[in-house]
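User: Please run a holo structure prediction.
Assistant: Happy to. Please share the sequence and the ligand.
User: Here you go; the ligand is nicotinamide-adenine-dinucleotide.
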Amino acid sequence: MPKGQVQKAIHNFSQFQKSATQGDVYQNVVNHPWAQPLVKALNLPVPVKLRRQQQASEEFLRGKALFGAAPNGTKTESNVSNAILTVLSKSSAKLFFSKGNKQQQDLMSASKQFPLRVLSETTHKHSALVYDATNIETPEQLSSLYNFYHNAISRIAEHSRVIVVGLTPESCKSPAQASVMRSLEGFIRSCAKEIGGKAATANLLLLEPDAEALLEAPLRYLLSARGAFVTGQTLHITKVSPTKEAINWRQPLLDKTALITGASRGIGKAIAETLARDGAKVILLDIEPCKDDLESLARRLGGHAVIADVSDKKALNKLIKDVQKGSETIDILVNNAGITRDKTLARMDDKRWNSVIDINLAAIQRITEALVDNKVLNVGGRVVCISSINGIAGCFGQTNYSTSKAGVIGYVEAMDKPLARRRITINAIAPGFIETQMTQAIPFLSREIGRRISSLSQGGQPEDVAEAVAMFANPAASGLRANTLRVCGQNLVGA
Ligand code: NAD
């Protein structure tokens, strides 16, 4: 064989090898036109490529949105329905009312507040199906939820959104209503599994009474392409005073400063880019070996790079002094830095155990408390901690990692009240399988399983986690407290 051809073959093979270890090869191949006959012949599942946010200015919802509400038995309007419709009417989606909701429809059209159309045709595809279930009080009344979705679910478009709004079970008047509100979780989780093949998502928002003014940030997020990898999840909205700040929805983080740990690559890098896109000034922290990448990212985002190890207590003191010297404060803290040091428990050495617990858990506590105690984190600030679904479900060979990540969820729940005094919110995100350097290190077969066992049959991208961080960081998200949001495409085994 001539030398040129040999070199070309070696080059092609190394390209193939590279692509076989980077990114989702299966998804790319089965979506490729030349593979279609084979895909059809073998009846292979084809994960639909998720539609993610392309530009900051992109509309949060387009197409045709169908709204319904459980009858409220009174002749008065529902505040929750009004709050949902107010958000929907800010999108460019055309709003439709389901035929079955005669009473609500009359009330809504009487108020003339919303340009609602009654759904008469059955041919169009819905981009969103939103249901206000807050008035359901008994198991029998769940039939209204069934009727709404039963009639419409088969007409959802690819990438569409199913959203149910209910009440937190703890706030319900009767055990029957509390059980009904809890049952909504089962509904959306199963629904998410049924529609995942269309890259569509289903999620639940549970409100405390009179918290509807705090719906907007999570509702916009879940309806939009920003929440593409979040499905089968529930967010709780606590009743607090809503922010008095006018929200600029294009750049909600203008004038805010965010500190992101582990920011040189992977999820941390995407968080830095996303918060900067939303207007925040970013302070990026990472360890010495990542200096070049960190500094070039900081330059690109107009931010500031800090070389420090989160496990080094002296470095933390220096960081605080530096921030104070520059008479700066921080509005958003993202505890993202994390490591894995996998071994089964019997083979795990002290070093692996201690380093993972320290970096993934103890350092988060040290940093958060040092910033709060030194008043470096502003009143009304936001703390977002990155946990993992392995902290919920557990994972073979990861007792150290799962312990640390479950501890992060416990920390967020325990810190909610102490931080609420300064109107600081703290929430966790539990990513599932996200395409980063961390998951590239997983053996090929486990990696493939990690991708395919989600309802969306694929892994997430770092920006999926970053968009969830941006949602929690939004000044309008003050009702989101001590939540753990799984950004996992409903990938969870073993829990
Ligand atoms: P990654 O390994 O690509 O990035 C982690 C970053 O943290 C790196 O930049 C690293 O240098 C930094 N870091 C590590 N130790 C540090 C220390 N002592 N001090 C300062 N910085 C340090 O990982 P990733 O996939 O981007 O993960 C980011 C976070 O998300 C981690 O907390 C991880 O546990 C979590 N997570 C990731 C996945 C996933 O699928 N990738 C899933 C669940 C949770």
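The chain has three domains: 3-42, 64-237, 257-478.
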